[in-house]
Design goal:
Elements lengths: L1 H21 L10 H8 L2 H11 L8 H12 L2 H6 L1 H12 L14 H15 L8
Length: 131
């Protein structure tokens, strides 16, 4: 099963890099369509968009497919599809040794960052400057 997951990650990383190279900047402040496909399936982008824009783009409903598959099969997007997760696994495989000196509290840092990003996306909609 591990080899099938690695093959899937490799295929999706190649697809992502190909789509990234196909994306062109048209002078607008939005991401081009080919790469946007990956982001449409990302549940984290879906959640932060809801909190920050207080609206949902129709394309983000693709992330509900990912959420449903995750409930049934486990970590589908991060473990099988996400290019960042693939790069994280590649870099992690270069580190052959693991230090036992690392505190377990450092592993919680990623969750604190996630909570911070979600909370900051909620408050990004408000205008905090005095008017």
């Amino acid at each position: 099963m591990k080899n099938i997951r690695r093959i899937s990650q490799g295929i999706f990383l190649i697809i992502f890099l190909f789509l990234f190279l196909q994306t062109e900047s048209n002078g607008r402040d939005e991401l081009g369509y080919p790469v946007k496909i990956f982001l449409d399936f990302d549940p984290l982008v879906f959640i932060t968009t809801i909190f920050s824009a207080h609206a949902v783009q129709k394309a983000f409903y693709f992330s509900l497919i990912t959420i449903t598959a995750t409930l049934i099969l486990g970590r589908v997007f991060c473990g099988w599809v996400c290019p960042l997760g693939t790069l994280n696994n590649i870099v992690g495989s270069f580190k052959k040794w693991r230090s036992n000196n690392v505190s377990r509290n450092w592993h919680r840092l990623k969750y604190y960052i996630l909570i911070f990003l979600i909370v900051s996306s909620v408050f990004s909609r408000f205008n905090w400057q005095g008017s």
